[in-house]
Amino acid sequence: MKIRSFLFAWPVALLGLVFALLGCSQDFVRAPAVSDSHADIKAPDSVDADAAANTKPNGTGDAILYDFQAEWCGPCKRMDPLVQSLINRGYPIKQVDVDQNRSLAARYGVNGIPCFVLVVDGQEVDRVVGMVPLSRLERMFTKNNVGPVP
What we know:
Blueprint: H1 2-22, H2 46-53, E1 63-69, H3 74-88, E2 93-97, H4 102-107, E3 115-120, E4 123-129, H5 134-143
Parallel strand pairs: 1-2
Antiparallel strand pairs: 1-3, 3-4
């Protein structure tokens, strides 16, 4: 039984190591260990997920950029100063921890992080996954006529 577990576990560990060394974004959904039972899994509070989805920061009701990230994600941490500079300039951005808000990540089909999803009038209009320059994030806003909130 231990040999079978090893045969299935080592490719996953190797793939994680490769992603870590390359600094690539990876799927945030982790496979449960062989001994994990689904009875132990607690679903996130759907009220919190709905509240996060309807959050209108800085007084804007028509556009928001969701920054899907995780505490353990190296590329997400490297993108944080760029995102903070946009927030400081007044752009409507909601940072979402995928581990804390899985239902919102699932709603937008987030498979890799960092993932930036621009929603205008309730519709997704642009998306980018992975580390990108500040100019790409700014272009998401300008291309869709979304500016900073005064």
